[in-house]
């Protein structure tokens, strides 16, 4: 994992779109079934849109039926951090990028094997990097 990144809100506003800033820096959520990656099936990796840290791999992605990209594990358990979220009158586990602190989504205990976890992630928090294929 790379060194941690700390920036002011003004610095993040200069680098992110208004929607990315709302979700990543202010713990927002994009509407279900609207993000670019909820039904993406291409091979590749998903990185933090704010800092580029690789977070999830397409081999860990599954269709949860929720309308958000869902993964049963992270590429590196140290890349994604969790904390208690009591917003909106409920208790959930928020997940964020360990490197820059950007809000990614939430973690639920209803995913498939082998982990039983569901990382429910906002598409706007991610940048997709297609897998490199061998031309031969």
From TrEMBL:
GO terms for molecular function: peptide-methionine (R)-S-oxide reductase activity; zinc ion binding. GO terms for cellular component: cytoplasm. It comes from the Bacteria. It holds the Pfam family SelR. The lineage of its organism: Bacteria, Pseudomonadati, Pseudomonadota, Gammaproteobacteria, Chromatiales. This is Peptide methionine sulfoxide reductase MsrB. Belongs to the MsrB Met sulfoxide reductase family. It is an enzyme of class 1 (oxidoreductase). Binds 1 zinc ion per subunit. The zinc ion is important for the structural integrity of the protein. One of its GO terms (biological process) is protein repair. The active site is at residue 120. PROSITE patterns: MSRB (PS51790).
């Amino acid at each position: 994992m790379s060194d941690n990144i700390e920036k002011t809100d003004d610095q993040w506003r200069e680098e992110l779109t208004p929607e990315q800033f709302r979700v990543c820096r202010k713990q927002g959520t994009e509407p279900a079934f609207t993000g670019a990656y909820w039904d993406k099936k291409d091979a590749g990796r998903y990185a933090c849109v704010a800092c580029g840290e690789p977070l999830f791999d397409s081999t860990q992605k599954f269709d949860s039926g929720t309308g958000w990209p869902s993964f049963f594990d992270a590429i590196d358990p140290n890349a994604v951090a969790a904390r208690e979220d009591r917003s909106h009158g409920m208790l959930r586990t928020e997940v964020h990028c360990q490197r820059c602190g950007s809000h990614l989504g939430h973690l639920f205990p209803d995913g498939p094997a082998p982990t039983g976890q569901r990382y429910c992630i906002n598409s706007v928090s991610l940048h997709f990097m297609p897998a490199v294929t061998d031309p031969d």
